[in-house]
Amino acid sequence: MGLFSRLLGMLGGPRKTEARGTIPVQPSGGRLTRNATVRDDWLTLVQPDFFGRAHRSSNKRWIVGCNDSDGVGRGGYRESGNGRAVLVDHQSDTVIHELTCFARPMDAAVSDAGDYIVQDSGFGSALQGDVIALNIEGHERYRRHYRANVFNMGLSKCGKYAAVQTANAPSDDGNLLEVLDLDRGCVVFSLQPATGWADRYSFDVDVEGHLKAIGVEHKNLGSFKYSASGEFQDTQAFQAARLDKGDYSTKLMAARDLLKTAATQDDARKALSTADAALVEGAKDRPDWGAIAHRVRGESYELLGQLPEALAAFDKALSLNPKVGVQKRAVALHKKLGTG
């Protein structure tokens, strides 16, 4: 590598990534010891000296390690000083390459073939992030810049497709779920996530490498699918999971959604039982969530024609939070029932 290329790598160089080549395992103290060890999702290397977050392929062969530090003790927010990323073949205990071209490598995912993606948060305080796809040689395949922080991402086992979820931001890139075709270098679909921010992603790919569906996995709720074109396919299943399996805040938001448009009496009964369960599970101990729970109860009773119970629920909600949004309805019910 020439001097100019080395300087570009040290300074975060525009877009090119340079691999350092294979670094073999070395014997230590006259006996063979592992160069690479992983404990609690952290990777430690003897040569080169490295410690960072470990990201493993599903077949457990490949590890990408990310270290958000400039090598002289500075990590996190900064204006200069590149971090490091390494690709390790854990099966043969070999470091394939080390890259120092990323400003702040915060996250990664690696395929079963050794291709991988890195999320670079960049320098400074701007809401931004780059998702960079690299092959096993360390050469850049594709790059997507976001004017928003990247919340999380996932990679298909074959390494062809990536999923990226951005955090909220004032730009058009805020709160996006995108699927990227890394071979073709394009966005497959980009949308506001129907399920909120997922914890993990799965990819249904046929034998010819075509994307059939993508799954978004939510802890405690389950997995839900989008089609290859971005159509959400599990609306009812997701709603049922939120009502039945979510924590009290998730249950209450789902119950409110259930009552929003053309709600039936069955919907009202389901929302009422959900709000009661949420109160038992902890909403009663939080004035903000308790008020929302009693608002849901009041709206449910109102749909069921049980007006005295609805009024009592609205009054309770207002006592917990006067701005909960049912003042006018409570006044109207007081007049209707002659209690105002």
TrEMBL record:
Top-level taxon of origin: Bacteria
Keyword rRNA-binding attached: no
TPR repeats: 291-324
SMART domains assigned to the protein according to its UniProt record, in alphabetical order: TPR
Keywords linked to the UniProt accession: TPR repeat
InterPro entries hit by this protein: Quino_amine_DH_bsu (IPR011044), TPR-like_helical_dom_sf (IPR011990), TPR_rpt (IPR019734)
Protein name: Tetratricopeptide repeat protein
